[in-house]
Amino acid sequence: MVRRRTILKSSIAFGTFGLASVVTGQSAPTFEATADDQLPSTITADTTIEELCPQYNDPYYVPRDFLDYLPTQYSSDSAKATQFGYDAEAVQNSVGDGTLTLGDLGTQALPIVQTLAAADFPAHATAKLLPRLALLPDETESLSLHNQPQSVWAETAGPTVASNSPSQFTQSQWPTDARTYIPEEVAERDRVHDQPQNEEWGSAAPLPDDVLHNDANPVLDAASEKIHPVSGESLGGDGFTATAPMTAEIRMHVLNDGYWYQYLEFENVSSVPYHLDGAVLWWLGPSGMGSNLADGHYNNVQRPNSSLGHPQRDVIEVVHGDHEGLSVYATRLAFHDQPYHMRTAYPNQRWSLEIGTPVYATDVSFPTSEERQQLLDTMLDSLHVELETNMDRNDDLVEAVDLKHRVPN
Asked: What top-level branch of life does the organism fall under (predicted)?
């Protein structure tokens, strides 16, 4: 038997959930699912898009998500489409009326969707992610880099799984992910990116001195003592912690003698995807004295093109007086325009951040292998990743650590 619920159309959902408050710059609403959003109990190669999610087109724009990034011979996805038996012609002919089947999408889509159904993953999010799920390889892919470094330190830290052993993390209220410029829909899709347009916000290029040298910022204890800045409670682990199952690895890329890239790489080790919009991270890293926080990059090869889907960032650096040459960095990812299948960490796949750091700004250079290893271990042990829940933008964290400083992508 197919289990269904009636999913509110976007025009109704906005009123029900209060998205107008995002437009006006008030506090982000807390979203609660009011009914089931379940995938069918039986899923086969003959299951159609409409059977997965009856509202696949309105309000979720699933046909556009397929057709706007179709893996044709000119696409970077063409090799994967051939390898996995993805039928691009079937997509073009049948996604619009909902008769496209999982079998039409080749070898990858069916087992992944069956796994998501077993994990009670939302039906509408599954349908929205299908254009990428259908091209998701079984093996973990290596990430490409935005900047090719001059050299890479021989020392590394990780990969290690989050020490607080987070349980399965399912974001039940994924956004409708508009493909239009209807203001209410944009307010939901770009709720993190557009926040500085509606509230008093500063710039992190350069960062104000009163932020850089704020000894009272709770982000200091968050990184060094593993204390949550909002609750004041332990983050639950002695090293790398996160709110979803993932691993982290730290490397240092050397652009030149006076400029490094802190490289943070993550892998989703759960069975379900999670979206990265609004995710907040913090860690202890080498001080750059807040002089070039605009230089940061996001890497995720599970996109139709590496130039698409780059987030802007809210970012601060706070010099830590108890750790010579180190600062706490905190950043929130703020995606915009592109659909959320480009904002997503997929099972068994990786994403990473590169953070430009002008080390010439301080007198601490970590010249020996022992000092370099200690630095990377400290970066990893202090690292925390907090994903967004209920589309709340992680506003409580933003307020607590004064993260209202934006840099463009």
From this structure: Archaea
